[in-house]
Amino acid sequence: MTPPEAPAPQTDRWLEPGKTNVQAIYVLYLASFVIGITGLIGLVMAYVNRGKSEAWIESHYTWLIRTFWIALLGGFISLILMLVAIGVVLMMAIAIWVIVRCVIGLQKVSRGEAIANPDSWLI
Predict the structure, then answer these.
(1) DSSP-derived 3-state class of residue 32
(2) DSSP state, residue 117
(3) Is pLDDT above 90 for 32?
(4) CA 34/CA 14 separation, integer angstroms
(5) For residue 55, which of 15, 22, 97 has the smallest C-alpha distance?
């Protein structure tokens, strides 16, 4: 007689690739303005789940990954430009850019729409 199999562990839906996961990553990006490490956690989640879901969700993962790296690049440039005082303005512009991209992404994912041009540097 074989012992009964243990039930498979249940994971929350926000860890699995899909709409809920993308929304969680957007929220983590926005929370990174208060708790810095959450942006990095969101990036890891986006990389882990990329390539495992529908095409319209994939556009959001690409958008999220590019948002992180472009914002990081802009942050480094802003840091350097703080020596001539324009970096502060650029840092605020980058923060607004990230917030706008996250809000646009959250709106589109809640409507079930893909990002039109996920490789764009703009909004």
Answers:
(1) coil
(2) -
(3) yes
(4) 21
(5) 22
d(CA 84, CA 6): 63
pLDDT in tens, 59-96: 999 999 999 999 999 999 999 999 888 999 999 999 99
* Contact by Cβ (8 Å): 13, 20: yes
Residue 105, C-beta contacts closer than 8 angstroms, at least 6 positions apart: 22, 26, 60, 63, 64, 67, 115
Tokens representing residue 56 in the block: 């319209």
Q: Determine the 3-state secondary structure of 81 from DSSP.
A: helix
pLDDT tens track for 7-20: 555 556 666 778 89
Model pTM score = 0.84
What are the domain boundaries of the chain? 13-111
Q: Which of 100, 13, 22 is nearest to 56 (CA)?
A: 22
As a whole number of angstroms, the distance between CA 16 and CA 77 comes to 35
* Interhelix angle 19-31/37-49, nearest 10 degrees: 160
Q: Is 15 helix (H, G, I), strand (E, B) or coil?
A: helix
Half-sphere exposure of residue 11: CA atoms within 13 angstroms, side-chain side: 7
